[in-house]
Amino acid sequence: MSEIRNLINITDLSLEEIDHLIDVANDIVANPTVYQDICNHKKLATLFFEPSTRTRLSFEAAMLELGGSVLGFSAASSSSAAKGESVSDTIQTVGCYADIIAMRHPKEGAPIVASQRTTVPIINGGDGGHFHPTQTLTDLLTIKRKKGRLDNMTVGLCGDLKFGRTVHSLIEAMMRYENVKFVLISPQELQVPDYVKESLNENGAEWVEMESLEEAMPQLDILYMTRIQKERFFNEEDYVRLKDTYILDLEKLTNAKEDLTILHPLPRVNEISVEVDNDPRACYFFQALCGKHIRMALILFLLGLK
Ligand code: CP
Questions:
Q1: Has 41 been annotated as catalytic?
Q2: CA nearest to 306, candidates 31, 9, 69, 116
Q3: Residue 197 catalytic?
Q4: From 55, 118, 142, 245, the catalytic residue
Q5: What is the pLDDT of residue 241?
Q6: pLDDT score at 40
Q7: Residue of minimum CA distance from atom 6 in ligand 1
Q8: Rounded to whole angstroms, how far apart are CA atoms 295 and 127?
């Protein structure tokens, strides 16, 4: 029997495997009919203990477009977690009903616990302020499609870099490519955690912290905006003080490169003005589409079908 593969952290995948997933995602777009029945009789469970639009629905759309079926819940309140059931018991049960599970949970490490309680592949769809590896696969596919490469670039990450799990996973992934420089733009209170900085240093990555988005802008090839996440703050006062620190508008883009790629994992609140949406450099809705393609490739990979 082949080993069960999970995706808990982006580092669970080698660079060769990430390349493979990107190739499959592109082939799915080029040859959709080849893939339309490939997951016939396979079931994906989406267990979302935290709200989601893109991650859950793109996983479900991905499985449906592969000819499979989906089941699951979109809130802890509509599952037996509301009656006090543990994550372990929920996963052990759902593992009897589905061939693969995508889950999101507010507690960091919950997907690891889940992976120890079932023999079906577990995909981490976001665990607290920790990691969000399928968002990172989405980001990598978007960057590859827009830039044609994943190396030799300067990546600016802006906003809540402390609690932003998408940021932590993207840094973990991109530091493995040649000559990627990171510009970490945040207020002091929301800087990336020490473990991310240690990881950057251990990998010999070049990085700098800045507070001013305007100052950082001219050197960036990628600008990854993030939301200040109200749900991660311990008090309302801090959130209100920090929530509007960065608002990207057309004025702030005047010093940006012509071929800048602007990304955002979404949802946004007001950190990107809607006037930016029509700028050709704004790629965040294209990014949401890429999320479906890469999740199709990931489902096939973890089920051993491609
Ligand atoms: N990017 C992302 O994780 O979006 P959702 O919270 O809508 O899933």
A1: no
A2: 31
A3: no
A4: 55
A5: 85
A6: 98
A7: 52
A8: 17
Q: Which of 42, 43, 132, 168 is catalytic?
A: 132
Would residue 82 count as lying in a domain?
A: yes
Helical packing angle, 133-147 and 54-65, nearest 10°: 70
48, 161: one domain: no
- For residues 51 and 34, give the distance between their C-alpha atoms in angstroms, rounded to a whole number: 33
Tokens 């070049």 sit at which residue?
Answer: 206
pLDDT score, position 2? 66
The DSSP symbol for 75 reads S
* pTM attached to this predicted model: 0.95
- 198 and 67 belong to one structural domain: no
Residue ranges, the chain, pLDDT below 50: 1
Interatomic CA distance for residues 251 and 29, integer angstroms: 36
Amino acid type, 110: A
* N-term to C-term CA, the chain: 17
Decide the pairing of beta strands 180-185 and 206-210: parallel
Closest CA to 98 of 148, 44, 51: 44
- Cα of 299 vs centre of ligand 1, distance in Å, is 18
Query: Rounded CA gap, 107 and 130, in Å?
Result: 9
CATH of the domain at 265: 3.40.50.1370
| 15 and 96 together in one domain | yes
* Under 8 Å between Cβ of 161 and 132: no
